[in-house]
Amino acid sequence: MDFWDIRFKAMAVAAAVVLLVAGFLVYARADPSGHEPYRGPLASPGTPATQPGRTHRIALNTEPADYPRLRELGYDLVDVKPDDGLIAGVPDGMRAMLWVGNFTCGDFELDFASFARAVQRFGRHPKVYGWYLSDEPNPGECPGITKEISRRADYLRQHAPDQISFISLTDWPMRTLTPERVGVDLVGLDPYPCKGSAETQEQCDIGAIDRMVRMADAAGIPRSRVAPVLQTFGQSCSEGDKQYWLPTEAQFRQILARWDRLAPRPPLEISYSWGHQDEWACPTLADAAGGDHPDLQSLLKARNKAR
Prior knowledge:
By secondary structure, this protein is α/β, with parallel strands linked by helices. It has a single domain, classed as Glycosidases (TIM Barrel), CATH 3.20.20. It is about 35% helix and about 15% strand. It is built from 9 helices and 8 strands. The chain has an 8-stranded parallel beta sheet, with helices on one face. α5 links the parallel β4 and β5. The radius of gyration is 23 Å and the shape is globular. The N terminus is likely disordered.
């Protein structure tokens, strides 16, 4: 065997070792769920959108039996459908966000004629804070959703001028859903950083918040119109997806700190979710009072009462 043959074989062995080590490192670093943490640029810091104490707070998916505890925790809004009895059941010191929306590309809770009648009935009701027009609309798959949201927001401006219109967005196309383009007052952003497993992991992808805020910035959504959606759910006992875990107390503090940097003192702050949703959310904030679950309720009580 000559020198060149020996050298060639040595180089081949070395290359194989490098590839093997590189492959091991990629495997070791990969998230087995397929979720890749955000490693891009951070979003720039925001400026306060409201005066101290002016942030409204809501925990979604509640029932009247939950209202006393929600008030103890410092929430001042509840979500209900546009119904006389349900609105009458909202206690003093709280107001209603009326759910009239759709999810993604699905049908709206009310067709437009029924929506218009609801606005005529409750558009000046003192117990009504605003109208939840759409949850995670996806104009990439259903472009017509933009026009329908705009139509409903316009109707609210005319017939409920002192109430707010609200949509909540995820990491789908946002450019056609800005306040300027569809006329809504507030836009929720719902990055859920504790993702990749239904079982508690060591770290949440806090950068996911920066990623979505940067998407909103690029789309033209003013920070002053952003309503942070806080992750207060996991999926260890849900019947459907198993992608998210309920944040630990330390992880939840990180979530709050990042939102405080990017959208301090927002006009609205949302906890998703208080109540269980069989397919999407279990456990939830209703469970997170210590014991078998993190005590997120105490963290939110201190936050809500202080601001």
